[in-house]
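Hey team,

Sharing the Bifunctional purine biosynthesis protein PurH run so nobody has to redo it. Sequence (508 residues) first:
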Amino acid sequence: MATKKIQSALISVFYKDNLEPIIALLKKHGVKIYSTGGTQKFIEEQGAEVIPVEELTSYPSIFGGRVKTLHPKVFGGILYRRDNDGDVAQAGEYDIPAIDLVIVDLYPFEETVASGAPEADIIEKIDIGGISLIRAAAKNFKDVTIIASKDQYAELEGRLTAQEGATTLADRRYFAAQAFQVSSNYDTHIFNYFNQEENIPALKVSETKAKALRYGENPHQNAHFYGNMEDLFDQLNGKELSYNNLVDVDAAVNLIAEFKGETAFAILKHTNACGVALASTVKEAYQKAFAADTTSAFGGVLITNQTVDKDAAEEMHSLFFEVLIAPAFTGEALEVLKGKKNRILLVQKMDLPGTKMIKTLLNGVIEQDKDLATETKADFTVATKKAPTEAEKDALVFAAKICKHTKSNTIILSNGDQLFSSGVGQTSRVDALLQAIDKAKAFGFDLNGAVMASDAFFPFPDCVEIAGKAGITAVVQPGGSIKDQLSVDYCDANGIAMVMTGVRHFKH
Ligand SMILES: NC(=O)c1ncn([C@@H]2O[C@H](COP(=O)(O)O)[C@@H](O)[C@H]2O)c1NC=O
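Structure output:
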């Protein structure tokens, strides 16, 4: 393995933190250090000698720092092939010194975009010299070690310490791969920023944090999560989230976001809600959600949008559940809930970011806007002679919100603050309705005066007929079938109120 002792380094970093141990190591091994303005000052403060890069290039940093390392003496020193006689002779001819190690930390482009800075500031944070140094050094990994981010200092320190100031070819190839990961991620963010306005048809996703999951949907499937869960949640208890947990947590967080300003509780299984309720306390909301399906709740993912207190915690403690998500837990509630060590407790710190959804299929991916449409009473068009009462309208809004987050074909039966039952993921709407009616009866709900929500239109009047006979008095559906009138006629003949929203909510 071609182990090479590092004799010279170029250091140019935006964030200077944590660089100290590297400087100390380089100093200890007598490495000649070249550096740019701010970094040079920082290294000198560490008591190490530095050659300003301007001395090497015979140019000052110009155009407000847009050009400082971009010079043949710098790039030649990185890129010339040490085993190529012609390159070595040219390096000598032009007095180009070898640079064995390059350490860069790029201008924080992504951070600057996220801060809402004006475009001029964002453009200045497109690093040119740094990204070029990274690519050059990574290309010449046979001879040069590249550290492309402050996140890699500790790894470099470890290897230099263990190998007496040297790196192996395997080290350098590894760091080169890391470097291209950094540069491609950086360019992806720049492209996506520009493409917000340009809409060039290209999908660039770059997630640099990967977490190996225990397994995928089933134990024989490997799986990873690419993303940054720490931004969204603090985990207070329990084992690591599994692949299926993550899928359900995503569904739960999207569902509960519908109930801002209310005290809501939901219980989900396989992304569908088997219990949803509104109440004045978390305990009561949990009790009502649980009552909708006391069987399915076992092993479920639970979520509320209010602080979980001791009363609520004691109420749900006897249930075996996988995950509980809340914006906060009281100390007493945690004491109760932590009684089961595998139970995952998550504090949700923010709403889900992002407005797009991506899925792989066939030999490509499909992307779409998230379904962010939620109908209010104002969006209802009364289609029947009889209009729903205000209480029925409230119930229809509640049912429609749950319906939107349930697998198609779906039917939701509820009142204004409690999911009674749902028919989920059925191949016919009639089956979804029959499933919902059976479930409601099985869990003791009286459907007389209940409301029904459907994710898509009724192609035939069969659903309203079955629902009416079960006691349903008001219905919300998108409408849009050429046979809408048949359903309206049935409702008119049987005293059922029906509203249409014009918005379909398929969820496949
Ligand atoms: N223009 C250049 O030639 C150039 N060379 C290096 N940089 C960047 O300048 C920063 C360090 O600058 P300083 O050492 O002056 O704080 C690093 O983030 C590095 O990626 C440059 N700046 C931007 O492109």
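The chain has 19 helices and 23 strands.

Ping me if you want the raw files.
A.
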